[in-house]
Helix-turn-helix transcriptional regulator
Amino acid sequence: MLGDLVGRSEDWVSKVERGARELRRIDVITELSRALRVEIGDLLGQPVLVETEQQDDDVPAIRDALMTPRRLSRTLFKSRTAARNVIAAEHAARLVEHGWFDYQHGKLSQVISNLPRLINTAQDLEDSATDSARTGWAISARTHHLAATTLSKIGEADLAWIAAERAMYAADESDDPLVLASAARAATHALLASGRFDDAVELGNTAAEWMRPQLASDDPVALSLLGMLRLRTAVAAARRHDRGATTDLIARAERAARRLGGDANYWQTGFGPTNVELHRLSTRLDLGDVDHVVEFGPRVNADNLPAERRVSHMIDVARALSLVARDDDSLRWLLDAEMIAPNLVRHNPVVRETVKALYQRSAASRGAALTPLGGLAERCRALL
């Protein structure tokens, strides 16, 4: 029955279930998730804990902050809100930017640990904002953008969508076009995490076209935000296997990078020619061009980009190498990535699936669990 629903044979489904066939394309996984009426994360077996070095898991606290009843009605909770002490907007803005700094440097557990407090502060600033002072809304949008991006990274798709929706609402209220463009980028992350690729393409294209009037003076922030919107939309197009749209969007991002003039990090975008090249390779991998990524991926020097972006590229290369059974090289790329940003590697669903494949083909699966691969598998919880 499942084979009929996704247009595949019974033998194909059986091999996937038994691990005898590896699913290489995200659009196929998405098709299966829709047929089974489950989230993509359910098929990928994502872990329920994202622990810090102190074995704390703060994702439940983020859920509590996002789903607090006082967000449902300002009228009902007005008296309680008025009694709360709201920190200065300038201080809150610095805390959020520090959170973005941690995220880009791969300190994922630190970001997750701080997000509940940041979200509560952002909501307090929303309550104290006025028509003439909208700074609090802009800070809230940036905070919820950080939450949406972080939650997407660890596979918490539903929570990421709540955070992204809050980011978009706050950005609308901020009356700042750049804040809104940045929040739209967060929403594309959340849609991608949920497997809603068509919606991500629609949102990304709509936001990019809306931004075009902001580019009259070649503002570097606007160019960077536009470029990243094009790149995120290209990823969505690749995951729905639309090669033409993917190529066009990458080309548009490349033109924005040329106008920018080099690699930069305006508004924590990490945008520039190098990031465009990394996304070109990532989308080629999603389109199934594994040999291309194996050949050209290791040649790209991304040392000038934030750790988060470098590690994402290293994971792509490791995945491609695994798909052509270059297991030793794949493991080396993963271990190198783990040295840069342990949390980004250990809590990544793609890494976990790659490590599973490596482990099944390795002698480690026959008892040599104390090998480097066995250690990585344990740290990634790939064998649970």
Q: What stands out?
A: The chain has four domains: 1-38, 52-195, 196-288, 299-384.
